Amino acid sequence: MKASVLLLIFATTFTVNAIRHDPPLIARHAGLVRRSPTTSKRALSKRCQPRVNHDGPPADTHQFSGGGEVIDVQSNCGDPGATAETTATSGPNGKLDWLNCGIESGGWQPPYIQISDLKVKSMWEAVESGNSPFQPCRPFLHLFEVYGGQFGIPPIVLASFALQESSCRPDTVGGGGEQGLMQITRDKCGGAPGGNCRDPDFNIRTGAKFFADLLGSNGGDVLLSIGRYNGWTRGLTIGKATAARWSSCCRCQNNLDYLHQFLNGWLQNIDAYNQNRRLGRYFNLDACN
Question: Domain tally for the chain?
Answer without folding.
Answer: 2
